[in-house]
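F.,

This is the one I mentioned.
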């Protein structure tokens, strides 16, 4: 007998066919595995997967054998290696190659010859075995098929990717030139969408006897002594009754709910009577028909009742699951009951608890253990050992770490830049916020929250808030993820030149102040910098806060911009006129003014002409006669009014020179005009030093009588000569040298005394009537003649 089961991929044909074959003792044949074997051989041997001739040749030359229901390739069992994503991607295309189909169909017919088989595939009932006694077409909704394939866990693809792959295979299978997928004539259609595997098998088992009887090809040796119409049905009943004797006390069996009372659930396990289970053993009231695993406690008690226990079955299942979790490093669910010494007691169900050390409760340090009480989570089983009692050691931290690693790796494998993702705001920093993406974090930088200026991340997102974000950067090497909110909107810089141009005067809002300037937002997401040097034409600004505050609305001029780097240079001072452009007209040289002294320095004083514009009065320009004023503060005081004259204006260098001494004529020049060299001048002794005597003469000019020019004669002792004079004495001296440029005045007492002696001598001589004269300037002594008086 041949039972042909057709249907699309993912409908469960293999599982159903295998179960039916096991129940009936038939040989199970999976035609799809033969095509998968060819694809596996091609991939392993490096055969081009898109070369149909090479694929067909690979199929013809393969050594394929079916041993104990397992598929062997070249003498090695490869059946467990045939369900991979790479094979799934090509097998449907290879199964459409007509020469390969002929070869596979030939081998299938050879294997099925003179044997009872259950075979499944796409065209078993239409092409391979069109005369099969039983033909069944299994189908299911596409989303159900994709879900089943995903839950098998054999694929690394997502459920959506599996659904897309199944659709592609359906398109290929239904459009093949030969052996395409279709409902075979006489086949029974079964929709499995809402059925379990057991329910599908029950339907198929019920269909087999009736369909086989109508086909005319039943096994006559087995049916000739049976009543017409139900030979196989009676056989099934006999086999069923035999299984009742095989039930043993303590055995784990599966039954189904037949009635649900107020306190009791009745379960049929296939025995003569039904078992009863207290309703409170179920987490939720079951429904009639639900499957339930129980332990057969007693076949019959004194009241001839079947005693079963769901709790014992659950415990057995739990311990089996627990050991499997330990062996396979799979998580188990638990609930934290309370804190105990060194950690936590965790309930795993069925009255069984495990111990989770405090150091292995969380990824971060546990500061407040009480907060974990009542937590329901997954745990990894690290050890199970029995000393005086069974101890189960758990680790939630290890599970969290492995789960985080798995999710992160899955994220980097499936996500790409530009994808959207949902996350929960976890924590804040000065530069942004960290977002939990499912056990691992991504960074939402402050600059990616908005195209505009963001001062505080908390103004845009809240802790615990679930937000939609865009992935803008994936650093696979360092496993870093950068996220963005602003990329859901268009970059405002793309339309910058449609709104702004260099030289425009625009209004903006101050968003941030720094030592070097102020950031000003011109529009949402467009921000420029006004450097501190562009704040004022005349005023020295030490910090922008002297004239601006965050939030101020100001008018600025766009000086320049760079779209590539997103920078704009702005100017505040350009909004008003530059006073230095007309400074020479306003303050021409020679203009006399009176203003207050603003600041005194070591070399002079700044005098404010108007707000922001200062002139500088150098110490050398304070007095004509006071040489090298080392401390201008001895002459000037800050805040006092002083009269001065504008000496020079240099607008390019923003320098205005002032003078006080220029208010009057230079006394040195006046002195030189009034007293030429060799003339006699009178003055007051103001200082006596080791090297001479200082005398103040007309105009306050001070001259020096050197030590050598004090004595009457050259051989006089200078020190003794100086003792004759005191400060305050008035003396007359001869001007030896006067140099206004060098402010130098040299005087001589000796020359004055000599000159005075000569004048007195000459006067004396002129008063005599004699004819002889003595001319001191000539230095010649002449013979005097007798005067007329003597002659008389």
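My design for it:
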């Amino acid at each position: 007998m041949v039972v042909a089961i057709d249907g699309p991929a993912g409908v469960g044909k293999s599982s159903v066919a295998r179960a039916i074959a096991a129940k009936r003792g038939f040989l199970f044949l999976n035609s799809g595995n033969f095509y998968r074997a060819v694809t596996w051989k091609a991939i392993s041997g490096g055969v081009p997967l898109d070369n149909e001739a090479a694929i067909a040749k690979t199929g013809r030359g393969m050594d394929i054998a079916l041993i104990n229901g397992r598929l062997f390739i070249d003498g090695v069992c490869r059946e467990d290696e045939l369900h991979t994503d790479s094979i799934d991607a090509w097998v449907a295309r290879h199964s459409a190659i007509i020469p390969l189909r002929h070869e596979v169909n030939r081998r299938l017919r050879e294997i099925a010859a003179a044997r009872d088989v259950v075979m499944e595939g796409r065209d078993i009932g239409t092409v391979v075995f069109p005369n099969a006694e039983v033909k069944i077409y299994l189908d299911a909704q596409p989303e159900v098929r994709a879900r089943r394939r995903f839950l098998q866990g054999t694929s690394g693809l997502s459920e959506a990717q599996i659904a897309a792959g199944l659709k592609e295979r359906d398109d290929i299978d239904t459009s093949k030139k030969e052996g395409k997928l279709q409902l075979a004539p006489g086949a029974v259609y079964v929709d499995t969408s809402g059925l379990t595997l057991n329910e599908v098998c029950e339907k198929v088992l019920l269909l087999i006897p009736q369909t086989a009887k109508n086909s005319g090809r039943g096994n006559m040796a087995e049916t000739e002594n049976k009543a017409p119409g139900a030979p196989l049905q009676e056989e099934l009943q006999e086999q069923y009754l035999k299984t009742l004797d095989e039930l043993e006390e303590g055995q784990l069996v599966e039954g189904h709910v037949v009635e649900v009372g107020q306190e009791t659930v009745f379960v049929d396990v296939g025995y003569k009577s039904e078992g009863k289970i207290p309703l409170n053993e179920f987490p939720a009231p079951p429904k009639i028909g639900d499957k339930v695993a129980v332990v057969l406690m007693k076949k019959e008690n004194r009241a001839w009742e079947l005693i079963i226990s769901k709790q014992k079955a659950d415990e057995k299942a739990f311990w089996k699951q627990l050991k499997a979790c330990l062996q396979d490093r799979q998580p188990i669910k638990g609930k934290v009951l309370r804190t105990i010494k060194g950690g936590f007691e965790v309930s795993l169900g069925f009255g069984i608890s495990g111990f989770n050390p405090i150091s292995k409760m969380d990824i971060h340090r546990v500061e407040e253990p009480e907060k974990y009480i009542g937590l329901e989570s997954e745990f990894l089983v690290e050890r199970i050992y029995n000393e005086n009692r069974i101890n189960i050691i758990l680790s939630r931290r290890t599970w969290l770490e492995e789960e985080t690693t798995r999710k992160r790796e899955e994220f980097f494998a499936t996500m790409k830049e530009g994808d959207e993702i949902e996350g929960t705001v976890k924590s804040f920093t000065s530069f942004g916020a960290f977002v939990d993406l499912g056990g691992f974090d991504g960074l939402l930088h402050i600059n990616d929250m908005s195209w505009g200026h963001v001062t505080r991340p908390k103004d845009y997102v809240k802790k615990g808030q679930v937000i939609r974000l865009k992935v803008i950067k994936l650093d696979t090497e360092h496993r870093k993820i950068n996220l963005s909110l602003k990329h859901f909107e268009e970059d405002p810089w793309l339309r910058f030149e449609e709104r702004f141009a260099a030289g425009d005067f625009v209004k903006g809002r101050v968003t941030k102040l720094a030592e070097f300037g102020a950031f000003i937002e011109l529009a949402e997401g467009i921000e420029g910098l006004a450097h501190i040097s562009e704040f004022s034409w005349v005023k020295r600004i030490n910090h922008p806060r002297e004239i601006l505050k965050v939030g101020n609305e100001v008018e600025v001029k766009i000086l320049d911009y760079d779209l590539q780097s997103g920078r704009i240079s702005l100017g505040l001072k350009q909004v008003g006129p530059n006073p230095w452009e007309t400074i020479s007209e306003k303050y021409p040289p020679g203009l006399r003014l009176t203003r207050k002294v603003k600041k005194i320095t070591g070399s002079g004083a700044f005098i404010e002409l108007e707000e922001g514009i200062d002139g500088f009065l150098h110490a050398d320009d304070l007095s004509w006669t006071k040489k090298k004023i080392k401390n201008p503060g001895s002459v000037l005081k800050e805040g006092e009014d002083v009269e001065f004259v504008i000496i020079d204006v240099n607008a390019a260098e923003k320098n205005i020179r002032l003078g006080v001494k220029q208010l009057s004529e230079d006394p040195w020049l006046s002195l030189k005009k009034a007293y030429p060299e060799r003339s006699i001048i009178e003055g007051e002794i103001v200082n006596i030093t080791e090297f001479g005597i200082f005398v103040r003469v007309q105009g306050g000019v001070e001259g020096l009588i050197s030590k050598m020019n004090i004595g009457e004669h050259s051989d006089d002792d200078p020190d003794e000569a100086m003792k004759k004079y005191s400060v305050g004495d008035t003396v007359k001296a001869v001007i030896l040298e006067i140099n206004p440029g060098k402010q130098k005045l040299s005087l001589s007492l000796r020359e004055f005394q000599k000159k005075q002696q000569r004048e007195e001598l000459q006067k004396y001589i002129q008063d005599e009537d004699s004819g002889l004269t003595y001319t001191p300037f000539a230095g010649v002594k002449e013979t005097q003649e007798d005067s007329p008086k003597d002659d008389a």
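Residues 210-244, 773-792 have pLDDT under 50 and may be disordered.

Talk soon.
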